[in-house]
Amino acid sequence: MEQQRQITASHMVEALTSWWNLAGLDAVVSDQTVNWLAIDALEKSVEKQDFSKIETAAPAISIATKSLIAWPGDIDRLKDMIANGADLPGNKFGTASLPAVGPAKSDIVIVSDLPDADDLASGALDGGASGALLNKMLAAIEIDLSACYWTALATTRPSTGEIPDESLPQLTEFIRHQIALVKPNAIILLGSSACNALLGEELLKSRRILGKINHDGISMPVMTTFHPRTLIARPSLKAQAWRDLQMFAKRSEL
Fold first, then answer.
1. Is it the case that residue 13 has pLDDT exceeding 60?
2. pTM for this structure?
3. 63-253: what fold?
């Protein structure tokens, strides 16, 4: 399936102009040194924050080691089950469930950690501030977010704003199940939790190169970058994210 769409010159100018603001040209340059080794810790701390201050999550719930419900072999069925609160991995941390967004067949799968509070308020994984920023980021490299399959490790939000460590193996297995159904040509990982789950590496190490992920005997390019919520909280990192996007845009040349 053709993933990247042709856009007009005016749309290109608009996308690039928007991205230059997103990439940090609107931020003041400082002579202070930056502790880049602390960024991954920052990423994890930002993941716990609720920027919209909306109380939507239920108290933390203990996680069973394995769901009793068979995992569906169809993406549309899987989305329906998640939306209806089925006992699937990551779908019982809170009371509001947000399934993946995007088509069942896509060239690009995007994986993040969990919904933000404003996503839950909007009723869609891409409905909050992070989705709006990600849409602009991808448009700058001629990728339509609505044509991508975007899912999260957890489809509900724990009251702590953090995924329990003991649930990560099952959540990772469930994400790989979805990847097998979608059959993408490339993967984008947003944030440290998604990076650790799918690659077993820290974000700062993996995002320096365009990596490869092997799934069902197929090798595909994978880009890791900061979650949009981190870029909202720390605009100085937008220039780093822009370099990640440029690298991903050239994936077919590698």
1. no
2. 0.79
3. Uracil-DNA Glycosylase, subunit E (3.40.470)
